[in-house]
Amino acid sequence: MEDRGKEKVKVAGDERWTAAVANLAGMSSNLDSLHKLLIKKAVYVDDDTYSKVALTADQARTIKVLELRVETLEKELDAAISAAAHARTEKRQAEAAQKAAELRALEITRELENTTKVFQLHMEELRAKQEEISKRDEEIRLLEAIIRTLGGRESLPSKT
């Protein structure tokens, strides 16, 4: 059983090596074709011309990289401007909500003050009525006492 597993692994390894060797052979033929093409089509220039062309090519690559960086920075700037505008809008909304809450708190405070004043007036009114009731109770007791002393002791039941 183990022999079969080893055989499968060995066959898979052999197949990989065969594929790798085939890939290398293909690459070798491609390199040969490229080499022949370069020899036929190549333009030979002196060192001065080559250095100028190399410098120009290098500068072109640098310019391309810098253009890409500028585009990236422009996108970042646009995003930052958009975020700042959004933040300003949120700040205005928060300030408006805060002002509305402060006005509501002020309104509730005024309502409480007014309710307190009304309550105080009612309490004063209740105290005045309580005093009036107490006064009348005393007057009634006094009148009952007078009636009792004048001879109607048996006619009125005593509350005390």
What's the shape? elongated
Please report the distance between the alpha carbons of the first and last residues: 119 Å
Structural class assignment: mainly alpha
Q: If you average the pLDDT, what whole number results?
A: 86
Amount of helix: over 70%
Count every beta strand, where a strand is a DSSP E run of 2 or more residues: 0
Would you list the SSEs in sequence order as H and E? HH
List low-confidence stretches: none
What does the largest sheet look like?
A: none
| SS summary, helix count | 2
Computed over alpha carbons, the radius of gyration is: 54 Å
Strand content: under 5%
Overview in brief:
This protein is mostly helical and 160 residues long. Helix content is 91%, strand content 0%.
Describe this structure in words.
With 160 residues, the protein is mainly α. The protein is 91% helix and 0% strand. The radius of gyration is 54 Å and the shape is elongated.
